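Course assignment 3, question 2. Fill in each field.
Student: A.L.
Task: Predict the tertiary structure for the chain below.
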Amino acid sequence: MSTIAANLQAVEATIEAACLAAGRPRSAVQLLAVSKTFPAQAVLEAAASGQRAFGENYLQEGVDKIAAVAKARPELRLEWHFIGPIQSNKTRPIATHFDWVHTVDRLKIAQRLAEQRPPERGILNVCLQVNISGEASKSGVRPDELPALAQAVAALPNLRLRGLMAIPEPQADPALQRAPFARLRALAQELGKAGIAVDTLSMGMSADMGAAVMEGATIVRVGSAIFGARHYE
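Answer field:
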């Protein structure tokens, strides 16, 4: 068994245990394998173990990798998620090549994605990134500005507002990890009460996926626990 295959099994066991502890079915949580900085071969290796959803942070790297994987295995039907910061002049290739975008935090970005989504690609699934810990260095809409942004994005054509995403401030204590995830879940529930239906909470990474699942994550974004330490040029 390859290292990536073994790592996927270990991550799967962690998610299963958290689902069991939370009284949730395993099918309620999707594993998003974050393949940023790793080559197409690593994606193919994970796909050979059954992984089908992959996340990319860097636009050009992601577009190139999508093409390389499609060339190597054209029969593979993978789901590609863009999970990095979005510059307004880079929205067209994101709208063209990805199935999901997790990091929408401004109406201008959402409008450009909606306008630039090719008709043959169908609806683009989007999540709104919330700055749940209030960190100045983090992207994301402020919680008090979320309802207005959600209302506007939900009305756009060619997009489907699926839910919320957050990258909380890192914490080692599981109890402290759970608090911001609980806040994000509460924000999603508030949107539902306001008539904006969402079904996705994209939260939790390698170090805190268990806490995220306990608080209702429907997508966990796991990179290093699957692929190993990051490779940077």
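Instructor remarks: The chain has one domain: 3-227. The beta strands are 30-34, 53-56, 79-82, 100-104, 124-129, 159-165, 200-202, 219-222.
Grade: pending
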